[in-house]
């Protein structure tokens, strides 16, 4: 199996709020360390904006993919059967479409190779 080679940009390309589509899957990529060697990736479904009647700002709602697949929706969700990530429009810098998320993970892999060589273990930083 071979994966296509590509030139990676030195910066991430998160999704723009205007391109989000209800029901589409997006990926949250953050890092547990400052060097960007320990990625944390979560899969979310975009479920809409301003879903709470008391929202005063432009809030974007993402639901965990598992509960969404089970048919749970915001209106009927409880803390036990669904998770939601609520983001203000201007703070989407960690939400990516599939190919852009993949590029973030590939860039992480290159950073790890540079820092760790053939080693694959990264100590977990303490606070």
Description:
By secondary structure, the protein is α+β, with helices and mostly antiparallel strands. The protein has one domain (17-116). The chain is 19% helix and 24% strand. It contains 2 helices and 5 strands. It has helices at 65-69, 98-116; strands spanning 25-31, 39-49, 59-64, 84-88, 95-96. The longest helix is centred in the C-terminal third of the chain and has 19 residues, at 98-116. It is elongated.
Quick structural overview:
With about 130 residues, this protein is α+β, with helices and mostly antiparallel strands. The chain has helices at about 65-70, 100-115, and strands at about 25-30, 40-50, 60-65, 85-90, 95.
Key phrases:
127 residues, 24% strand, alpha+beta, 2 helices, 5 strands, five-stranded antiparallel sheet
- Largest sheet properties: 5 strands, antiparallel
Strand content range? 15-25%
SSE series: EEEHEEH
Arrangement of strands in the largest sheet: 4-3-2-1-5
- List unreliable stretches of 5+ residues: none
Radius of gyration: 17 Å
SS field, number of helical segments: 2
Shape type? elongated
Could you give the count of β-strands? 5
Question: How many structural units, i.e. domains?
Answer: 1
Oligomer: single chain
Structure classification: alpha+beta
List the helices and strands and how they pair.
Layout: E1 25-31, E2 39-49, E3 59-64, H1 65-69, E4 84-88, E5 95-96, H2 98-116
Antiparallel strand pairs: 1-2, 1-5, 2-3, 3-4
């Amino acid at each position: 199996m071979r994966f296509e080679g590509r030139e990676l940009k030195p910066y991430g390309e998160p999704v723009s709020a205007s391109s989000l589509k209800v029901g589409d899957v997006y990926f949250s990529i953050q890092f547990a360390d400052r060097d960007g060697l320990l990625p944390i990736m979560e899969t979310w479904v975009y479920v809409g904006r301003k879903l709470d009647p008391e929202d005063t700002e432009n809030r974007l709602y993402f639901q965990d993919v598992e509960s969404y697949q089970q048919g749970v929706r915001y209106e009927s969700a409880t803390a036990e059967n669904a998770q939601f990530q609520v983001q203000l429009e201007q703070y989407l810098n960690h939400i990516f479409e599939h190919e852009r998320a993949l590029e973030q993970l590939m860039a992480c892999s290159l950073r790890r190779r540079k820092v760790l060589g053939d080693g694959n273990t990264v100590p977990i930083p303490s606070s």
